[in-house]
Amino acid sequence: MRHFFVDEQPVVGERAILREEDREHLLRVLRAKEGDALQIAWNESLFRGRLEIIGDEAFVLVEEAVEEKDVSTQLILAQGVGKNQKTETVLKHATECGIDGFIPLQMDRSVANLTKKYDGKKARFEKIAGEAAKQSNRRRVPVVGDLLTVDGLIKTATDRDLLLVCYEGEAAVEIEDARLGSAEKIYVVIGPEGGFSDREVALLQEAKAQFITMGERILRTETAGIVASFVMKRKIERGSYAAI
After folding, report:
1. 138 with 41: CB under 8 angstroms?
2. What is the rounded CA–CA span in Å between residue 214 and residue 120?
3. CA 205, 207, 208, 214: dihedral to nearest 10 degrees?
4. pLDDT the model gives residue 129
5. Cβ distance 58 to 35 under 8 Å?
6. 177-194 burial string, b = 16+ CB within 10 Å, else e?
7. CATH superfamily of 2-66
8. Chain-centre distance of CA 23, in angstroms?
9. From-to residues of CATH 3.40.1280.10 in the chain
10. Which residue in 112, 107, 108, 92 sits closest to 229, CA to CA?
């Protein structure tokens, strides 16, 4: 079923208008037909209905509101900045996996440096997140945060949040066995190509972060971010975690 975001609150039994770019894509590229089933999202609410075409306009005749399972814990991926398009790849697929937010980390061993050009890059990140959310039938688009360092991330997290660090130097706690407790936000922290520096590890340890391993194999930074996002989101959704 095709999935789109709309700008005005849908009402069951009434028409909801699609955005111009979505209407063009739906009618000109996808060749959608009157009566096709569609799904639309607005302000974290999800609706289903049928396509109506009136002249050059495309509407969704809203038939039902889809209830959402109550999941209060937010999953934020804090990903070490990678070179080339690695960070964009992680954001795209982690959005499909269900992250609620994304924070790029400028880390001590990051090869790429986004410090002076992040405004433009952030706009691109938001576009990628929006397209991936649409493709994967998300109710909401993950929030793309400011570019932070590990120091800044630690200051951002509150006492009600959990810093969960995927670290190749940790061998005791598997990612599946992470203790999430009642955290309001879980920040999954992934290092860049060069890994975490000793300084960053010490800072995270001092901040009482929980260090976990993703197994015996060393994953690329972009692979680790995607895999960790999927595992932790499923863990949150299923409520299968033990108290800290």
Report:
1. yes
2. 33
3. -60
4. 96
5. no
6. ebebeebebbbbbbbbbe
7. Hypothetical PUA domain-like; domain 1 (2.40.240.20)
8. 25
9. 74-238
10. 92
75-97 mean pLDDT: 95
For the record, the structure tokens of 189 come out as 């922290």
Q: How confident is the model at residue 243 (pLDDT cuts 50, 70, 90)?
A: very low
- Report which of 146, 159, 147, 242 is spatially closest to residue 207, judged by C-alpha positions: 159
Question: Using one digit for the tens of pLDDT, what is the confidence trace for 101-142?
Answer: 999 999 999 999 999 999 999 999 999 999 999 888 888 899
Strands, sheet with 185-190, edge to edge from the N-terminal-most edge strand: 143-144, 101-105, 74-80, 185-190, 162-166, 210-212
Longest CA pairwise span in the chain (Å): 63
Instruction: Give the CATH number of domain 74-238; options: 3.40.1280.10, 3.30.43.10, 3.40.50.1220, 1.25.40.10.
Output: 3.40.1280.10
Q: Which two tokens stand for residue 73?
A: 């814990």
Based on the number of CB atoms within 10 Å of its own CB, is 4 exposed (0-12), middle (13-18) or buried (19 or more)? buried
Of the chain, the percentage scoring pLDDT greater than 70 comes to 95
